[in-house]
Structure prediction request, 401 residues.
Amino acid sequence: MQLFRWKVFSQAPHRMFFWAGMLYGTLAMALWGVWLFTGDVSWAFRPGAVHGIMMLFGFFPMGFLGFLLTVFPRWYMTHEVPRQQYIALWLCHTLGAFAFALGAVVYAPLALASMGLLLASLGIALVIFLGVLRRTHITPRHHGMYIVLAFGAGMSALAVCSWGLYAGAYPMFGVGRILGLYGFLTLVVLVVAQRMVPFFTQGAVPGYEPRRSPYFLPLAALLLAGHVLLEILGSLAVGYADLALAALLLWELMRWRIWRIRRPALVVVLYLALGWVDLAFALSAAGNLYAVWHGLASSPLGLGPLHALVVGGFGTLLLGMATRVTLGHSGKGIQAAGTREAALFYGFQSVPLLRVLPEVLAPWWPEALPWLNWAAVGWFLCFGLWWLWFGDLLTQPRVDE
Prediction:
């Protein structure tokens, strides 16, 4: 990349994190898809563990950081994150993520060492967010504090996963995965959603006034903590926590008057993402409580609810947020989103359906299971198209400059 290109590319954190993150998410799913369809990948660790690290601690944090490093200072009316800080964070996380992917297939020590870079990147992000909260005079600061709490949980989760991989202790790795998924990423998603989705809706729907509940985040954090504890203990009672989470999120969405949201696609896609999150909790509750009532050892729905959350919820949200921020900060404006973007958002909904439905139907229709592998192809196509369509906007000057 030429010098002037680097200056443009590094002008803002969203440029760097979305460009690298969407590329990484595409390549990571390509690698996973090759293994699913051919089995011709030599993994240094268990395949599911590698996939979990790449997505939970590599891809999704890159995408969320692209958004958070842009908006977090604006929440609290402080100056933007200093350029040298977000560049250091980007280098640390990007090198760590790509080195882990490489090490996971060619050299295990490289993968283990790269997890240290990923851990350091979460620590740098945590310091940046704390610095913003320290400088601001804005109150209340609860959204920011929950983000800090989530990244602290993410660091703890990644440290546990790292030790689990190093020691070959996969039950320990599973503890870190649970904490990372629910204590870190899910909490970040719920915080960002409550802060930003009503705000975006207000700008798109005439006469709309945000109605955020002050009780939503404290209750959600408490229930997520309960989910983490119960799932670590292997208790099917986790279904009760998830039932409460599903009801809580549905209640909050009703306060936001979701029935009024019909357009534009840049707003609708955010509600689709939250619908997947709510459905994930509902499916998890249904599966685990069915197991309780029928004396089963585990939920008959397998990993369906988890992928409804991660692929449907997180994936859809990231596509919508990244598109909005990229268009808005490119000088084109969010009004530039049209049929192409809507087709991408709505077309992507087939990906979580392909991943979740076969596993949900498997107890009654086991022949459907092989279809879930095609979700990897759909993910690869959608995120690959996003990178091809919007990647240039992230490396070029604003069109209005």
Notes: Residues 262-394 form one domain.
